[in-house]
Specification:
Blueprint (H helix, E strand, L loop, with lengths): L6 E3 L6 E3 L4 E6 L6 E2 L8 E6 L3 H9 L2 H6 L5 H21 L1
Helix pairs in contact: 1-3
Bound molecules: zinc ion.
Length: about 100
């Protein structure tokens, strides 16, 4: 195990993974609703982690796992943004081939 790896648990599959491989969804302390972590976000708050996979996103959506983990409402637009990000990641991966 290398030094500096931070493990976090995906809210859907409960697998522990390197934090850098997971997506972080944040409920900022300022209470302005849930955001996805990104370069422009920089939000501090309560966070939940999700694998970048369609099965974990679907499961989180169906079972309201983000809502439970963050203890607040998570709008559909968050799940749509996650799916969008997944599509972009896949597109980037196929271009790299
Ligand atoms: Zn997962």
């Amino acid at each position: 195990m290398s030094v500096g790896v931070v493990l976090r648990r995906c809210v859907s599959c409960r697998e522990r993974q390197d934090r850098r491989l997971l997506w972080r969804i944040i409920r900022p302390f300022d209470g302005k609703g849930v955001v996805l972590e990104g370069p422009a976000t920089g939000a501090m708050g309560r966070s939940a982690y999700l694998c970048p996979s369609s099965s974990c996103i679907d499961d989180a959506r169906r079972r309201k796992r983000l809502q439970r983990s963050l203890r607040c409402q998570v709008s559909d637009s968050i799940y749509m943004a996650l799916e969008e990000r997944l599509n972009q990641t896949r597109a980037a991966a196929s271009e790299a081939r």
